[in-house]
Every structure is written in C-alpha cells, then in structure tokens.
Amino acid sequence: MGKRQELLRSEPNMPEYRSAAQAAGKAADELVFWNGRLSIPYNAVDRHAEGWRANKVALLWEGESGSALEFTFSELRDASNRVANLLVKHGLGKGDRCFIFLPRVPELFISFLAILKVGAVAGTMFSAFGPDAIRDRLKDSGAKFLITNTELMQRVSNIRGELPELKSIILTDAGSSGGETIAFRDSGQMPSSFQPEPMSPDDFAFMLYTSGTTGKPKGVVHCQNAIVHEYITAKYVLDLKDEDVYWCTADPGWVTGIAYEIIGNWACGATSLIYEGRFDAEKWYSLVDKYKVTVWYTAPTAVRMLMQAGEAYKKYDLSSLRHLCSVGEPLNPEAIRWGLKAFGLPFHDNWWQTETGGIMISNYPSMDIKVGSMGRPFPGVTAAIVDDAGKPLPAGQEGNIALKPGWPSMMKTIWNNLPKYNEYFKGGWYISGDRGRMDNDGYFWFIGRADDVIKTGGERVGPFEVESALIEHPAVAEAGVIGKPDQLRGEIIKAFLKLRPGFSPSPKLETEIKDYIKKRLAGHAYPREIAFVDSLPKTRSGKIMRRVLKAREMGLPVGDLSTLEEY
Ligand code: ATP
Ligand code: MG
User: Fold this and answer.
1) pLDDT tens-digit profile of 270-304?
2) Domain count, the chain
3) Is any atom of ligand 1 closer than 6 Å to the C-beta of 362?
4) Residue 357 maps to which CATH number?
5) Cβ count within 10 A of residue 107
6) Is residue 422 a part of any domain in this protein?
7) Best mutation site among 211, 468, 539 for ligand 1, i.e. most ligand atoms within 8 A of its Cβ?
8) What rounded mean pLDDT belongs to the chain?
9) Interval 199-242: pLDDT, tens
C-alpha cells in the first residue's frame, strides 16, 4: 500500500489518532442543548436551517426510475415540521412507536425526522420485508402508527388483524384520508412551523431490529443522546466536511442507514446522496460520476459485487472520490487491495453493531491501515479483548470483543426483553458476541462471531480468515465457511463457494482451491469439503448467514428467516 500521506486527498478532520479524544469532546459541545435537553432532528437539520446552511442541499435524491429531487436544510425542516403537525393532529404522542415501512424515498427521511420532533419513537423496516417480519416487529414494539405506501400495505393487510395496538396508517400515496388511513399529502396543509419536543438525553428516540444473522432479531432501542456519538464519528471517521457529497449506500432499515444516513451526516451539515434503487455496479459508478461523490460509505458485500463487475469502473470518472469506508462484515484484504487499484484509495474498515449505535473501532484517514484489521477504538471508547468471565486478556490472545459501557450511543434496552439486555454485560464490560484479538499496537482483528468460530482438531479457526483466503483465488467470487461436525476432528471446515463468471465447478478446481489455501493458511485451516453454489444465503443488509448454511448442512431447522434475502 502507498504511504498514508500520499493516499490522502484532503486534510483529515482528525489530524492524528491520539489527539482526537479532546477534539471529540469539543465536537459534542457544538450540538445544541436546552437546559440539558436536546433534540436529534433539531441538531441534525433545524439548526442548519436557521443558519448559513439554510439553502445548502441536504438531500440529493435519485429514484429507481431516474427521477431526481433535492431538498435544502430549510426545506427538510419545513417538510418534517408539516408531517410532525399531521402526526400530532392524529394523536401521536411522546413515547409512542411509529414505524416506517418504505423504500428509500424522501418521505422516509422526512417522516423519521418528524416522528422524533414529536418525541415519539421511530422504527424502521426494510421495504423488502414480508408479512412475517413485519408482524413480528409491529407486534413486539406495539407500534401505534405505521407510515407506508399502498403497494407495501398489501403485505400488512393480511396481518392487520394481529396488530390491535396499531391505530393509524399513513399512506404516502393515498388520495385522501378516511377511517384508519391518513393521507401523507394532507401534511401539505399543515403549518410549516413546529417546536421539536425537548427531550432528555435518556429518552427513547428510535428503535430497530438487528440483522438476524445469528438468530431472532432483537429490538434495540436508542435514546436521544445517540446523536452525540453519531455526530463525532461522522466527523472524525467518515471525515465529513462542508464541501463533501456523501453517499451512504445502506438502507435505513438497518442501523447504518439511520446513524449515518440521517443523523450523524446531517448533524455535520453534509450534502447526502440517497439512491432508491438496488445494487448495480454500473449504476453505482454512474451515480458517483454524476453527483461527484467524495465520501462513500458502503459494505463488504457491495465491494465484493463491484469486484465481480471487473473493470467496469474504467468507463466512469470517479476522480471525485476522496474517502472510502466500509462496515457490516469483515472487510477482506483482497477488497482493500482492489479499492486501491480501482479508485486509488483504500476502504477504511470500521466495526460496530446495532446495539452500539455508532462506530466503535475504526480506521481513520490519518492512521496507517493494517490490511485485514478493523482498526483502533474511537478516541474516548474503551475496547478490550476479554475472556468469558469478562477479564481482559493480553495482546495477541483471542477472546471476546468487549467495550466499557457508557458511550453516548449505547443501546438503552432491548424492547420487551430486559433479560436479553442484561446478558450483554459481564464483569463491567459490554460483550459484543464477536471474537477477535488485539495486537501490540492496539489494532483489533476480527476472528468471527462467537457462534461461528470453528473448533477443528483442537485448533480454533475463524471463518473470516478462511473466507478471505478463498476469495483471493481467481475463481472465487464469494465464500461462506462453517464448521461441520466430524467424529474425528470435532469439526471440519466446509466452504460454500460462488464462482466468478467464466469459471465452472470441477473436481480439479476443488483440489486446486484446497491446495491454494493449504499454502496460505496453517495446515489445519483448509476446507476439507467444498460445495459450489449459485449464491450464498444473505441478510437483506448483505451479510452471509452462516447459521443457515450450517443448519441446511446438518438437516436442522433454519430458525428465523425473516431477514433472508430472496436468492
Ligand atoms: P444479529 O445480532 O441479529 O445476529 P447482526 O449481528 O448481523 O445480527 P448487526 O447489528 O446489523 O446485526 O451487525 C453487527 C455485526 O456485524 C457485528 O457484531 C459483527 O459480527 C458484524 N460486523 C460489523 N462490522 C464489522 C467489521 N468491520 N468487521 C467484521 N464484522 C463486522
Ligand atoms: Mg448481532
């Protein structure tokens, strides 16, 4: 990799990793509190609408069909004020849950802000969810309002009878209001001023369900104070500046789409691009080119898909890009090297969870990247590797990735499930459920989810290490690795591989891939079994669901599939 300085295209907001703790504290002071109370939407949007950013574009939106819209900070403030007035008129109050079930359209973002202005709790759901996923979430949360559209409403209609607490449904495309249905467009007649409810930092603000990668999704609740951490990390990790055009490709059905597509990014006053459509390599490149995107925040699954599109990037002018970040799954070293080749820039991996509400461990523009490492804790966050009793382990040893509780965006509770919430804490640490190790320089390395780590012949093997080695083979596009029970070895490693275009399965290729891994990893870490597949089971947020591979392999029930992507 090139020298750090040479890869920088702008002076970082955080010039040096260590100096940042103090700066982070100062950044939090830039947010507006009223006698110890605050408001997320006020700090993310209204504050800018009252100042020099009033006419700055906050939201650049492009629809799936190619239509485009722009909203300035003052337009976003006014639109969300009108919707807040509509919600209050129909009886939404502080603490009520209001869920949004929409594609990535402007109404989603406006509604989210409006719900928080009322002091209600906003919940989001990915628009591809089917009736079971919708019912589980609306029922568990006891949602009182739902904001959706006519098409998606069809999926709710079948389960409507099972949702006694749901009182009103707001349709973004309804012609007029009637019965339990409220027309979103009636907000056009509402006043454009609204005083956002001043909230205690500990009041609930939004909730969302985890990805369901390892089991049944958990209803994670976040409070108003989350903005403090989301703002400072957007500033120092995503490095957002006033001149940026920022594109986060996540869906607000997942936490990244809330923390860094609504809250942290707008709190920085950054112009943010939202694309309604699905992944398509050429389309994505054309958007970077058209909108001159400078900062790009995406996920490893998307980077791997871009890699599969080969050199398509050469057809577009992508020279506006200056900073690339990735989250959600381990970022394979191959993906970083490819980013350097395609864009002349490395992807900066960062690690966090729905429960942490914001970035916890990260690579920063000013810090040397160790390829394959998630980076170092965000200044002010204390992270460690601890054993199962919560005792910190020395550098180099594998253990649980843990955090000292108390950072501002830490989840407040798990909805309806206090015992589950309490399970996260041991020996004064928040235990993440992920395994990793820390090196002597304080960099963290991801090994795997606690449930996914493979025990073979007395050795522990992280699936990430094997998967990363596998996708370095020229024939392999994607890899999912599991431990398969074995009488002799406890478990053996089994790999499910999707091949790149132009390659087809054969015993010869299988042997070649096994030999390739044997040369790269410790002798015991090669997959004794390989299955070639057309696709891997993934969550809607693009994570490989190894538990599904494993259950299928063993002929066991696959468990909660509400977040599984059709494939
Ligand atoms: P569930 O908790 O329902 O099983 P999930 O853990 O996938 O689902 P999220 O909160 O969306 O739900 O994802 C957080 C998890 O994603 C982390 O615990 C970790 O396993 C993985 N992850 C996120 N970022 C990274 C990263 N940079 N490197 C490795 N893994 C990551
Ligand atoms: Mg999780």
Assistant:
1) 999 999 999 999 999 999 999 999 999 999 999 99
2) 2
3) no
4) 3.40.50.12780
5) 22
6) yes
7) 211
8) 94
9) 999 999 999 999 888 888 899 999 999 999 999 999 999 999 99
Nearby residues of 311 by Cβ (< 8 Å), 6 or more positions away: none
- Of the candidates 250, 367, 328, 473, the one whose C-alpha atom is nearest the C-alpha of residue 16 is 367
Tell which atom from ligand 1 comes closest to the C-alpha of 374: 27
pLDDT category at 21 given cuts 50, 70, 90 is low
Same domain, 323 and 382: yes
Gap between the Cα atoms of 170 and 99, Å rounded: 10
Predicted local distance difference test score (pLDDT) of residue 23: 64
What is the number of alpha carbons within 13 Å of residue 304 lying toward its C-beta? 27
On whether both 178 and 312 belong to a single domain, the answer is: yes
C-alpha–C-alpha distance, residues 369 and 375, integer Å: 7
Q: In sequence order, which residues have a C-beta less than 8 Å from that of residue 1 and are 6 or more positions away? A: 7, 336, 340, 346, 369, 371
Tell whether ligand 1 has an atom less than 6 A from the beta carbon of residue 544.
no
Q: Are residues 421 and 507 in the same domain?
A: no
SS (HEC) of 308-334: HCCCHHHHCCCCCCCEEEECCCCCCHH
Ligand nearest to the CA of 401: 1
**288 and 324 housed in the same domain:** yes
Q: Tell which atom from ligand 1 comes closest to the C-alpha of 432.
A: 18
Separation of alpha carbons 173 and 185, rounded Å: 8
Whose atoms come closest to the Cα of 217: which ligand?
1
- Residue 531: give its domain's CATH number: 3.30.300.30
CA angle 459, 462, 467 (to 5 degrees): 125
Domain check: are 253 and 397 in the same one?
Answer: yes
Cβ pair 551, 559 in contact under 8 A: yes
Which numbered atom of ligand 1 lies nearest the CA of 212? 3
Whether 214 is covered by a domain: the verdict is: yes
Residue 197 Cβ < 6 Å to ligand 1: no
Nearest ligand 1 atom to the CA of 326 is 27
Token pair for 396: 């180099």
Least reliable range by pLDDT among 26-40, 130-144, 368-382: 26-40
Task: Provide the domain limits for residue 538.
Answer: 454-566
Residue type, 15: P
Of all protein residues, whose CA lies closest to atom 13 belonging to ligand 1?
A: 353
330 pocket-lining for ligand 1 (C-beta < 6 Å) = yes
> Does the CB atom of residue 351 touch ligand 1 within 6 A?
yes
Q: In this predicted structure, what is the pLDDT of residue 153?
A: 97
Measured from the CB, is residue 215 less than 6 Å from ligand 1? yes
Query: pLDDT confidence of 19, banded at 50, 70, 90?
Result: low
CB of 446 closer than 6 angstroms to any ligand 1 atom: yes
In a domain, 440, yes or no: no
Answer yes or no: is the C-beta of 322 below 6 A from any ligand 1 atom: no
